[in-house]
Amino acid sequence: MNWSPLTAPSYVFLYMSKYKDVDRKLKFVSQFKFFKSKLPTIFIATFHLQKMDTPKELMKTIWRKYSLLYFGILFSSPKSILMTYHPFRDEILNTSNILEAGNSLANYHFTDMNGVSLKAVIFNSLPHRLWMKLGLVNEDWELWTNLVKNLNMSFEKTFIRQGFRRGMQMLKIGEVDFCPYLYFLNELNSNLDYIAPYGVEYLVALVPQSKKIHQSFYMFLTLSPTFWALVCGSLISLIITAIIGRRNKRGNQYIIFAFVKTLCNQSVSNISSLHSYHILLINLWQYASLLILAAYQVSLLKSLLIAKYDQQINTIQALKSSNLPIYIPIDMKTKVEISVPLLKTQLIPLSYDDIDDIIFEFDNKRRALILMHSTAKLVIEAYSRHSIDSSYHIMDEVITPGFSTYFFTKNSPYVNIFDKMLLKQYQHGLESRYTFSRRTSSYNENTKLTLNHLQGVFFVLLFGLFLSTFIFTLERFQMRYFCSKGD
């Protein structure tokens, strides 16, 4: 038989001499990691098959208790018979051909669902609307289309206009099988099932963008305290040098030339005739000027590459102090109230339809919205794609962490199947789980400057500083050597 890399199965064989051995052995192997991946398990029965109803009830019990979908019982006497359980049709499948037995278990439960129809509830969710506005392919729908195609299944779509809450209600009562949209899991719902977390995500706040500070003013804000300390120290040394120069006017001319050369980043020489105090202060001035030059260049780069805003809202405390109304999807309100009680009085729950209308009203009203990080990024991208001057940015401090997943009807056998298929795709690099960053900004120009952005530039500046200091030190030793030789 030809298996694809995604569907090639591995087996766990368990021998049993009586029916009660199954439960005991399952408890033993369930503590191992390989059991968690739902590997196909074959029980080798070493006793005679007496009644057909007994193994049928046993397999139903195993499936309900352990969610063990891929398993069968192989009876070797009086003839070889493999019995497997199909939970979707609630029937036992068996074959007397030992070669067909292995193919049946592997093929039937891993690669071919024989055209089973998967009922999906489709509604015009906020992420879906954003994908449409951006003219992009809906990644969620594309993922499930490929999975269903690989399993030889088909879709039976149910379109509704009521949105998320109505879709979840249809899942609870069993009208549909699953919802093919990624959602933030707020709490464990006993009436729904979901696959393993697809993405670790965070709820973030979209807050109004503050007024941008002009670059000419921002230059002074980016200068570090080290820069100003060096400037003050250099000015003090200059004043002391001037005072000493009044007492020793003969060296004033050389001192002036030395300072001019230092400001021009030139080496200072022929100062052996100066007073030792002059030489010491000039040396300090040279060291300070090199550091000032490096600090100034770094500040200049920061002012050119980072957009600075006046009193920007980037923390939960700042959001609380702003007294802005905070609009939030109604199903996420309880989780935020528990996680961040500080914002409880500002939260205004709305439906996803109302949230969508608020985002694209462009009325410049000051308000905040709480959304999933992935959805918030789509909002910012939608503004950028339509050449609209964004009135929102994503707050740096996150509201609360969580994870995204896909929802299914309670006790749905599809959960195990899709978990297995996605696991295989992850292992072969065909699919990836998402982990969304804690800190983000709305535009690239707002990204905080680090060595990752200008690593080469900073290293060049740092290397130049060390090289200049090294050459300067060599000149001092050379000057002292000739001075001592002249004496």
From TrEMBL:
It is a multi-pass membrane protein. Keywords: Cell membrane, Glycoprotein, Membrane, Receptor, Transmembrane, Transmembrane helix. It is found in: Cell membrane. One of its GO terms (cellular component) is plasma membrane. InterPro entries: Insect_Ionotropic_Sensory_Rcpt. The chain crosses the membrane at residues 217-244, 277-296, 454-474. PANTHER family: IONOTROPIC RECEPTOR 20A-RELATED, IONOTROPIC RECEPTOR 60A. This is Ionotropic receptor.
